[in-house]
Amino acid sequence: MASSQIPLDRAYLTAIWLETLFYGINFLLFFSYLFIVRYKRRTSLSKIIVGVAIMMFLFSTVHVSLGFYRLIEGFIVLRTPIEFFSDVSIPANVAKVTIHTVNSILGDSIMVWRCYNVWGQRWLPSILPILLIIASAVCGFGQAVIFAEARTTHSAFGSNLERWNGSLFSLSLATNVVVTTLIATRIWWVSRQINPLHDSAFKYRRVLILVIESGAIYSSALVIEITLYFLNNNAFYIIYDPIAQLTAIVPTIIIVLTSLGLTSADLNSEEQLATRNRMSALESRPQFVTGRGLGTFSSTGVSLPETEDRIAAGEADAHMFLELKPKQSAKTAI
Hints:
Radius of gyration: 30 Å
Number of helices: 11
Oligomer: single chain
CATH class of the largest domain: Mainly Alpha
Number of domains: 2
Order of helices and strands: HHHHHHHHHEEHH
Strand content: under 5%
């Protein structure tokens, strides 16, 4: 298939410009997260999660710095940008590929951690995403090794690289779609159990929309990346480098939601509360009990005396009615 209409040097220059833009978003989001952790945190977070967030930001910083280094080297120092950017075995490029893989693994692991907690710390929904992450790691590090050894390969579209790159991109897409679907399904299910007029219902609908939108942005970028790659189009680079920032942005959004108290504990407590409310409604539903005489009414399923004991029991019933809580009194009065 014919090569791209976009020259490689222009594609790379555009890619670095876009990655810088996404890095700015990543920068603001990360330091907002640090502010939330320090001053606004509602729930305690594992030190491991905080450490992972810091590592993702640092790797993202190194990635964009390497991009600028290659930009200066190709355009200013060597003045042969097309030849320079075509050589995939250059150490700086191999380092970028490796960092991209590591950040993808860390970001996907955060998503799986969130999925695990949202589903009540059950492992079963997380098994498939974990297997996908392992497969992605194998392909990603294998890709880095092939890049380092590809001394005679002067294109990322080489036949010896295509199966590694294609597998890595496809597995990343599958992981993101599966995890986003699992998280969104769980939030949607819990929100259905809550009274639609309750504040929590609106809160979880907002979270649901945010999760779906953030996952959709990342998935859309991956779909475009895969399409351009298999079309041997140099515009692939315009998507590939900014995705290195998206791999940190989307998981950091998930961590921020957790820091603000939108955690699995909230989901589970809301679900349990909704269940208790439904059970209470069933237990307090008026029941009519028939007997030998006239039908009697009871809000607890126990009939009142029907014969001459009714008169004697009247005072006791009135006393019980006055001692009930306001909500119970209202139910009994109805």
